[in-house]
Each structure stands twice: as C-alpha cells, then as structure tokens.
Amino acid sequence: MFKINQEYMDIHKKLYNELISRLSNKIEFTTYQTNNYIALRNKYDRNICEIHFYKKKITVHTLTPKKKYDIGEQVPDSFGWTLNYRTNITSIDELDDLIEIIIDSYKQL
Description:
Layout: H1 6-23, E1 30-33, E2 37-41, E3 47-53, E4 58-62, E5 73-74, E6 85-89, H2 95-108
Antiparallel strand pairs: 1-2, 2-3, 3-4, 4-6, 5-6
C-alpha cells in the first residue's frame, strides 16, 4: 500500500495555498488537473506551469526564467518541451523562488 509522507503533503498544501494567495491578485489563471499533474493556465488556455507530485519531491515545469535562480535547470532542447525549465522542490524553503519563477513564466506568455 502507498505510504503518504506527511512532510510532502504539507509541502503540497503550502505550495497550493501560497500560489493562490500570491498569484490571485497578480495574474489570472485557472487550474487543470490530470492524473499526472496540475496545470495553471492563463486566460488563453496556455499552460503557465505544470506541477507534478511525486513521493519525495514536487517537480514544476515552467518557461525558462529571465533571472538566474539557485533552484531549477534548463531541460535539453532535444526534449522538445515548451515548458523547458524544471524545478524540483524538496523543501518549503524553496517556495519563494518557485513562486517568482512561475510569475516570470506567466509574464512571458
């Protein structure tokens, strides 16, 4: 049976709450859920980011930010992904930078 790690459940909840509180007054978005991820979409139905939940981490795919961050990495061009920047979150302390990366991605669309 799948064992739920409470720390990561807390990170998932905090991520969602922080995203909603910080982004709701700055950008317009809707959420779209699949079995594999949650996407935040702009009013033109383009993905701002994809949030993938794994057992030990959360991976967020966005457009490459204009500013350099200590978290995240550019994925190889050979992947052919539109959202070509991958950030793995393993701690609540990384959420501030992640939220700024998501806002940057939104502004690029």
